[in-house]
Amino acid sequence: MKTQSPLKISIQRLKLFEVARTTVAVAIACIFFFYPATVCFKIIFDPSLRNGGISAYTVAQFPKVSDRFRKWAVAYTSSQRAEKVDLSNCAATEWPIFGSVFYLLAAEEIQRIVLDRHDPDADKIRLAIKNASEAAIEVVVDPKTASWVKQKWGESYLSKENVFYRMLLIMGLSSYENVTADSKYRLLLKSQAESLAAELDAAPYHVLDDYPGECYPSDVLWAVAAILRSDRILGSDHSHLKDGLIKAFLARSLTKEGLPAYAVDKNTGFPTAVARGCANSGILIFASELNAEIAQQWYGKHEKYFWQENRWIRGFREFTRDHSGEWRDVDTGPIIGGYGSVASLFGIGAARTVGRMDHSVPLTMEVFALSWPSPFGLLIPSFLSYVGTGAECLGDVAVVFLMTRPIASEYFVSFDGSIPLIVWIALGFYVAGGALILVDQWFYWVKILQRKRRE
């Protein structure tokens, strides 16, 4: 029996190592550098995005987002995680239902785009939406998901205040039925919409607490928007709620900037906190569905006091320039140079709904450029989501939700074509990073070949 010498075996292993090293390096260059560069290039020159539509890339990637979300949702509902999360961990308690409703709202808009298409890609999107929506609604309605609000409100969590959770429940149930045409949760939707509407109507200033002693106008406005959306399914009419709420806000809940406060006292309707970028951007995502004219006015003030731009970057501040002191919490996200990450991210949805493409388009470009796109999702939002909630997919879902908000205003400001330099810098970084890896491998193999010739 013929055996190879140890020297030959070592040489073969060395060759395998050399090939493997280069293979891994090229894969890294393609996946983590050239791929994001390609995505950035597509977003920068996407005609749909520039004209107020949803980017083709977002639509094409939705099946992947849906599949990642579905796998997480199935695992989440089958685990006991929701019952074990510390009440002080707001991200881990709130974001499972928040993210699931975001998914359903995004699915509604994506499904509208492919509604009249009959091609393999459209079929793939519809199937992905169907499967993921079934998983999403299970998270929304599962009593385990509500474990943290049960601890705060007790057995009355479905019948007394608890605005944040019940708003998401109503909004999620409405979106699910719109997406799937399945009415199996109709009774739950009807009971929650009618009971919360009655409570808001009876409240002195039409606001209620999210949690005991915590009242946030943005969540109340979202709740009224959710109830109005349910009206279209139930055939009911709660349109008077929007008029009462807007009137109460204008009379009592505005700050010196003329914007709804981040928090108010439910008993007086008066602010207990300043206006903040994250709350302004959040409230404006649905404000147009209540009153388009007021939404335009609020957006104008949001722009005046919170918009910040230079040739490098654009976005919304978390606090006004004259605000003394600055803090970070789960709502603000990271704040860099005054720019609020959540204020700017949610600002995409706010700007889209009021027809401000001059803001939403560059913000979208910046988000993609700075999120490090990959075939596995947006790496930076995924990482932040995983750290905060244990679910990496919810970062991608939030981004897609914001980038699919429909224009709800007759007012429209076109994108002027100017692109923040940070977008070009990020694009250059991705291209240069990939190129450097390939150049390094080129010289690596030149040295190997030179050595072999000498041998």
Draw up the topology in text.
Elements (H helix, E strand, L loop, with lengths): L5 H39 L2 H4 L5 H23 L2 H4 L5 H24 L6 H22 L5 H7 L9 H18 L5 H17 L14 H18 L4 H15 L23 H14 L1 H15 E3 L4 E3 L18 E2 L2 E2 H13 L3 H14 L2 E2 L2 E2 H11 L3 H11 L17 H34 L1
Helix pairs in contact: 1-15, 1-18, 3-5, 3-6, 3-17, 5-6, 5-8, 5-17, 6-8, 8-9, 8-10, 9-10, 10-11, 10-12, 12-13, 12-14, 14-15, 14-17, 15-18, 16-17
Explain how this protein is built.
By secondary structure, the chain is mostly helical. It has a domain at 58-157 and 276-433. Helix content is 67%, strand content 3%. The protein has helices spanning 6-44, 47-50, 56-78, 81-84, 90-113, 120-141, 147-153, 163-180, 186-202, 217-234, 239-253, 277-290, 292-306, 341-353, 357-370, 379-389, 393-403, 421-454, and strands at residues 307-309, 314-316, 335-336, 339-340, 373-374, 377-378. The strands form three sheets. Strands 1-2 form a two-stranded antiparallel sheet. It has a two-stranded antiparallel sheet with strand order 3-4.
